[in-house]
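Batch manifest line 357
LIGAND: thiamine diphosphate
JOB: complex structure
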Amino acid sequence: MPTTVRARSAQGGAEAAAATPDPATLVRMYRAMALARALDDRIWKLSRQGAVPFAVTGRGQEAAQAALGAALRAGIDYAYPYYRDVALVLMLGMTPGDVMLAAYGRAADPASGGRQMPNHFSQPRLRIVSGSSPVATQIPQAAGTALACRLRGEDAAVLVTFGEGASSQGDFHEGCNFAAIHRLPVVFVCENNGWAISVPERLQVAPPGVAARAAAYGMPGEKVDGTDPVATYRAAARALARARAGEGPSLLEVVVLRMDAHTSSDDDTTYRPAGDRAEMARRDPLPRFRRRLLALRAASQDELRAIDAAVAAEVDAATAAAEAHAAPEAADLHRGVVAGRGAPAGRSGEAEEACGS
Ligand SMILES: Cc1ncc(C[n+]2csc(CCOP(=O)(O)OP(=O)(O)O)c2C)c(N)n1
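JOB STATUS: finished
ARTIFACT:
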């Protein structure tokens, strides 16, 4: 897919930072994609069995997410992921166990102690900030964190993701406008999967699309094939390099696939055109990246098979561990939710104060 909009060309340092990832990074990206897919498959089945209450799928978006994760510096840059970003948070250091504990709503869930919906990722140590459920609220929050980084003199960039449906919310405008005015170190990434539940992109976003809006804010905008992890990595690395160099925010639109229903509560056969699923399967980024790694000789067939086997074992272990964990105590219901009752298990005193304030 061609780059359709680039308001300002990338230069010097940014271009150097956006080199193709080295073979070890490419393999790490494949591993995160395969692990996210395997978790997705397992959690979906568990939801069908009634073992977990709800499943959110990221099937078809993993390539873009792994690339964004590779371009970030885990624990230094801030990430505001949205609910489909399992591959992104795995790249940053969250574990399959963390994802499973949240799916089961266990007391040990590091994101919320089992209080949030699954996939509201949070890990203060990794600078992964929990999103709120109203879509797009994370966008102005990310701009605010970028301002805080500037005020504290930190060399951190902020990356925030959201869907094209979320780009219709006022929060999107507010976040972009504020960041552009103050030239904040933030990268806005729209993971455009073509649907907002049952609403197709053509009824959500007028041409020429999300990336083109960047010009109106005076920031660079770029539309990238999000099924191509290398192209996405290069675009994200360029945008992050600009942010770190004090050149301000950027808007990326990564075009991805939504291969499944919106969530386990949705039936997409009621609105998805016939043949669409087959077309998605043909463009599935996971087997395509596998073939590419072999063609690039970044990994051998045996190495990739070993990764797939290790991933399957990790998902089995994470499932068994989460199943064995306890549900939150009823007496703890208000902890971290209602002021003055303390934070969820595993949070620091500082977070406890923030929760209670
Ligand atoms: C403000 C708000 N309105 C509606 C919803 C219900 N809702 C949850 S996800 C979603 C679709 C969002 O679509 P998009 O931003 O394109 O992301 P996608 O789910 O397709 O990845 C909607 C409407 C919500 N959570 N918040």
